């Protein structure tokens, strides 16, 4: 019993956290596979990710890349606390319901704050967010998880597509393409149907129902309904409350069942599901939802821009141009200084030695990333955008 209650959640969390990069990469591949089936294959996932998915994917496959490494532990903790409440506080039902209400409300707050689930409607947004974060990390010269994942995936793509190998400057094109997608993405009937298959909305609604059921239980245990002298006055109110709670439970079950059936229908035939949605909803409703979807994309773009210091696409382009100019000037100065130090018979000074090291790092960087002196905002950007459309 101790092993099941404590060891299983802790071991699950330990496995996911120690393989954080693999988990995130697998979820990015899962999102990419919606457009490009090659990312379902063993070759494009790499052997390491493939084997890890086969063993542990049930622990994380429902979640976004950033939440997949720990959210299952929070779910197990919630279940443990509810079971603990049911066993330990049986003698005081009001306290039991109050503690259970606290657990459910905390779970609801975490759910609506983080929105951890990756629904089919989130796949494109997840890929765009990944491209944005990888591009921002490359522009700011930081080595984030998104940057490492993109580097590994690029190496795999180049290994299986030698004719389409990209230089290091592709990241600027990917960043621009991601921003362009956010600007130009239009909500169609299919995207509206996908929006209905939202695991985060389902989880939020069911948790809210759980909060209300616990709250109604506390109301039933109050003196208003337990005092024999007062009960005769509030019998009708008691019955109405009981009917309301029963209706809430019934509607939550119907809601879950209908969405489950719609998701199965949507996965089997997305176009027909979208057609049914268009028949059952008004044009104004679809336009309202389209604005909501577009607004979520704007929030994604704003968060990414804020993390990059409030920079826009134009700011990134200008910053990259300035960076290229300053780097070229610095490399030229270091090259002259380093060549003078190497040609001299005397031991190099500290500054000369730093110049030699800087020149070496510059050559390594050029060999790894490609030339930064040619900005690919026209040719490579168009190629990357065309590739995104093709997928």
UniProtKB/TrEMBL annotation:
Q: Which organism is it from?
A: Cafeteria roenbergensis
Segments passing through the bilayer: 68-89, 95-112, 201-221, 241-262
Listed name of the protein: Uncharacterized protein
Q: What are the leading ranks of the lineage?
A: Eukaryota, Sar, Stramenopiles, Bigyra, Opalozoa
Q: Which UniProt keywords apply?
A: Membrane, Transmembrane, Transmembrane helix
């Amino acid at each position: 019993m101790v092993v099941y209650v404590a060891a299983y959640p802790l071991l699950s969390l330990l496995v996911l956290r120690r393989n954080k990069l693999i988990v995130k990469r697998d979820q990015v591949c899962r999102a990419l596979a919606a457009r490009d089936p090659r990312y379902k294959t063993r070759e494009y996932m790499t052997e390491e990710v493939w084997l890890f998915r086969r063993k542990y994917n049930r622990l994380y496959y429902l979640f976004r890349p950033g939440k997949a490494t720990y959210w299952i532990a929070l779910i197990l903790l919630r279940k443990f606390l509810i079971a603990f409440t049911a066993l330990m506080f049986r003698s005081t039902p009001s306290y039991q319901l109050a503690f259970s209400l606290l657990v459910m409300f905390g779970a609801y707050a975490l759910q609506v704050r983080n929105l951890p689930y990756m629904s089919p409607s989130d796949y494109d947004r997840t890929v765009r967010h990944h491209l944005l974060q990888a591009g921002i990390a490359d522009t700011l010269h930081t080595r984030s998880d998104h940057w490492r994942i993109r580097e590994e995936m690029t190496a795999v793509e180049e290994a299986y597509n030698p004719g389409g190998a990209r230089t290091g400057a592709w990241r600027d094109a990917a960043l621009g393409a991601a921003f362009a997608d956010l600007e130009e993405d239009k909500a169609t009937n299919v995207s509206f149907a996908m929006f209905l298959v939202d695991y985060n909305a389902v989880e939020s609604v069911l948790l809210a129902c759980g909060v209300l059921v616990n709250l109604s239980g506390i109301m039933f245990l109050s003196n208003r309904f337990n005092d024999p002298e007062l009960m005769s006055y509030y019998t009708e109110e008691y019955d109405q409350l009981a009917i309301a709670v029963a209706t809430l439970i019934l509607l939550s079950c119907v809601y879950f069942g209908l969405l489950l059936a719609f998701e199965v229908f949507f996965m089997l035939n997305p176009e027909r599901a979208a057609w049914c949605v268009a028949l059952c909803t008004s044009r104004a409703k679809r336009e309202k939802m389209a604005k909501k979807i577009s607004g979520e994309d704007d929030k994604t773009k704003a968060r990414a821009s804020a993390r990059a210091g409030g920079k826009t696409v134009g700011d990134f382009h200008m910053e990259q141009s300035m960076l290229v100019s300053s780097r070229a000037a610095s490399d030229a100065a270091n090259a002259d200084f380093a060549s003078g130090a190497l040609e001299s018979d005397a031991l190099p000074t500290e500054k000369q030695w730093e110049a030699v090291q800087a020149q070496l790092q510059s050559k390594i960087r050029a060999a790894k990333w490609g030339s930064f002196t040619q900005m690919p905002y026209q040719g490579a950007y168009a190629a990357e955008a065309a590739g995104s459309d093709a997928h």
